[in-house]
Specification:
18 strands; seven-stranded mixed β-sheet; alpha/beta; six-stranded parallel β-sheet
Length: 334
């Protein structure tokens, strides 16, 4: 099969064997792939990953190992998307780790992560995943919508971590792909959600989804002039500089949710956290079932965020395009 691997900060085409299957695993033929900011950070050195990147996908099950014939028939040809954290039970470890015992499989001590940590991702024609990671895609959800399930689930995780009924309004810092999804998810629960971003065309996309917007500069002038304050702030700028402004905008006893991941470090002043007694929540992967339900019920439509679709063979070109100013979601199609 055709696949791409990370090599010296670039994607390199490779001809690889299809993945071998463990008992209870499936071989999935990729239909569509989404390029994420994490994939771009991987090229910059994030996690030191050197395998096939990519973790946002929709595909079709073509083979299943180690299950009954009736189970094989049920899975074969099914359109699916998949959770990215592969935990103890999928590898047959006994006993399972303490996190898996507590039901925290996304924090499994032995986990690999699709296209990010120790497991080949979906910048390829086929991928292997445990059946327990796969979720069926309803017929009324298009491939173009289904490819957003993983990042949309990450946005839904915020609602699983906080009691949204404690808040009347919220601010989302950032206007990129994940920030757009977060704002849309929050908007299903709150009538007052404001996105703060630097790019007018991206803010326009948010306004089309009935999200308020405010343009900022992303530099020191914001700290000098901006005096907006919220009990709930979500930092999703994808930039080391976003945290400081997020702290300033979170009111005393407020909640600050951190979503940004990037290669490198950022300077952190802790005094605002202490003086304002802020609650800081790190937020990562989320519930796929909730994300699929939002798509199935047409409560969130992510497809306006798609900028362009490339062939899988054009993956290096697509990655360069994805990093251009103003570009939103870029897709790959085998």
């Amino acid at each position: 099969m055709l696949a791409f691997e990370v090599s010296r900060g670039r994607l390199r085409a490779a001809t690889k064997a299809q993945p071998k299957l463990r008992k209870g695993w499936a071989l999935v033929k990729i239909r569509l792939v989404g390029i994420c900011n994490t994939d771009i950070e991987i090229l910059r050195g994030y996690h030191g990953f050197r395998k096939t990147p990519g973790h946002e996908f929709v595909g079709e099950v073509v083979k299943v190992a180690g299950v009954s014939e009736s189970a094989k028939r049920a899975w074969f040809g099914l359109r699916v998307t998949g959770e990215i954290n592969i935990s103890c039970p999928a590898f047959g470890y006994r006993p399972v780790c303490g996190f898996c015992k507590r039901g925290l499989k996304t924090h499994c001590a032995r986990r690999t992560v699709l296209g990010i940590l120790g497991h080949d991702g979906v910048f390829a024609e086929y991928v292997s995943l445990p059946l327990e990671n796969l979720h069926s895609v309803p017929n009324n959800v298009s491939d173009e919508a289904a490819v957003f399930v993983e990042p949309l689930a990450a946005a839904c995780e915020i609602l699983a971590q906080i009691n949204i009924r404690n808040f009347r309004r919220a601010a989302v810092l950032g206007d990129g792909k994940l920030a757009q999804l977060i704002a849309r998810v929050l908007r299903t629960k709150l009538s007052d959600v404001t996105m703060y971003g630097k790019h007018e065309e991206k803010l326009k996309l948010a306004r089309l989804a009935k999200i308020k917007t405010k343009k900022i500069r992303g530099d020191e002038r914001d700290h000098a002039k901006l005096r907006d304050s919220y009990a709930l702030v979500v930092e999703a700028t994808g930039s080391p500089t976003g945290l400081r402004l997020a702290q300033e905008m979170t009111e005393p006893r407020g909640t600050l949710v951190l979503k940004s991941t990037f290669h490198g470090t950022t300077a952190v002043e802790t005094w605002p956290i202490v003086v304002k007694e802020l609650s800081i929540i790190g937020s990562r992967c989320g519930p796929f079932a909730d994300a699929i339900a939002l798509l199935c019920g047409s409560k969130v439509d992510p497809t306006p965020l798609i900028t362009k679709t490339f062939l899988l063979a054009e993956a290096p070109k697509a990655m360069l395009f994805a990093q251009q100013r103003g570009v939103m979601k870029v897709l790959l199609k085998p």
